[in-house]
Amino acid sequence: MKNFKILLLLIIPFGIYLSACKKETGSDPQQTTTTTTTKKVNTIDSLIYFKGIVGGVDLKLFRDTIYTNIAGDSVKNFSNGPEYLPFSFVVKVTKSGAIVFPQSGGITFIYDDTTALGSADYRNIITVKSYTYGKLSTSSSSKGVSGARVFYFDANGVEWATDKGIGTQSGSFIVSSYVDYTDPIAPGTYKKIQASFSCILYDGKGNSKTLTNGSFSGKIMTK
């Protein structure tokens, strides 16, 4: 099983292309692999976005001729059970369809105890409620901490995320809507999520940025 954190942090060297956004799964025979094709839109889609004031800078990313919305999920298996990670982000793409991470942002949900869930339950694992902030696993032997994760790549390609520092998150993360969604741009049936948040983002080197008035609206893929 691929390490999801490595996938997220090193996705550019892996040469991920927009034309093949792949959903990753573990060794469970009930898990399946799905491939979707995504196209860019010709005008601004004001219903798909990542927004917020990051370090005092007003950031607004919409799906348009430059940016697109990519969603997926991952299951990582540990000796004491699986960890499930659905995610969605708004990211820039080139004319050839290659993903360019600088100036992009998104959200991840971390579920570190999904043993009792059947395959039909995964689509409803996200609910309309307030979430605490979680942490991705940092080792191959132990799971992370359940909760939400917000991440942002700045203009230099540096990732800032809620779980890359040692500070305690005192901000909020609230899912206000989670509904069935058929994307007219990328064929496939998804859920569409709307969330609002405030938090501190860290770069893993002791630096931080405060994110206020944050909001996200986009599709999310669940098993």
What's the layout of helices and strands?
Layout: H1 4-9, E1 21-22, E2 35-36, E3 45-54, E4 57-63, E5 67-78, E6 81-93, E7 99-110, E8 130-131, E9 147-153, E10 159-161, E11 173-182, E12 189-202, E13 208-220
Antiparallel strand pairs: 1-2, 3-4, 3-13, 5-6, 6-7, 7-9, 8-11, 9-10, 11-12, 12-13
| Helix/strand structural class | mainly beta
The chain-level mean pLDDT equals 79
Report the biggest beta sheet as strand number plus sense, adding barrel if it closes. 6 strands, antiparallel
Q: What is the general shape?
A: globular
Percent in strands:
over 45%
* Rg for CA atoms: 16 Å
**Order of strands across the widest beta sheet?**
4-3-13-12-11-8
Helix content: under 10%
Total count of domains = 1
What is the end-to-end distance? 16 Å
Per DSSP E runs of 2 or more residues, the count of β-strands stands at 13
Uncertain segments are 1-39
Number of helices: 1
Order of helices and strands: HEEEEEEEEEEEEE
